[in-house]
Amino acid sequence: xxxxxxxxxxxxxxxxxxxxxxxxxxxxxxxxxxxxxxxxxxxxxxxxxxxxxxxxxxxxxxxxxxxxxxxxxxxxxxxxxxxxxxxxxxxxxxxxxxxxxxxxxxxxxxxxxxxxxxxxxxxxxxxxxxxxxxxxxxxxxxxxxxxxxxxxxxxxxxxxxxxxxxxxxxxxxxxx
Length: 176
Description:
Layout: H1 3-17, E1 24-26, H2 27-40, H3 48-68, E2 75-77, H4 78-90, H5 94-100, H6 102-112, H7 122-131, H8 139-146, H9 156-167
Antiparallel strand pairs: 1-2
Helix pairs in contact: 1-4, 2-3, 2-7, 3-4, 3-6
């Protein structure tokens, strides 16, 4: 994938986190996204699913911030975020995705799985998409692209593969 496509995709994700538009992301931006996701599912931060999501999401921030050398209470501009994301998540491929993203995607999938079947249904997926700030109208198309086995549900492995496919230029929709 070309560097410009990767940069555009990282920029889009960065801008989704940077809700106040100050040109930086920090722990509070990630905390805000966790709260939006929990609210969309009617879950509290203190519930087991809420705690798991909060821990995973903020663990992802702590990892990226630590790798960037700003610490958990620092802030990242886009250029530093882009460099760390490429070096620590994207370039290592599956190993980077598993280390940094799998805990978060697993926690989100568990939260989304409101019927307890171990999978994310189209309705559950739509709630997630809206909670992270994407347009609800994209959910149906994205679901079909991510559901690679065609069973009508999404597994954690399909969701992680979708994030990888997005950043490799094969998929036009981002989950994180």
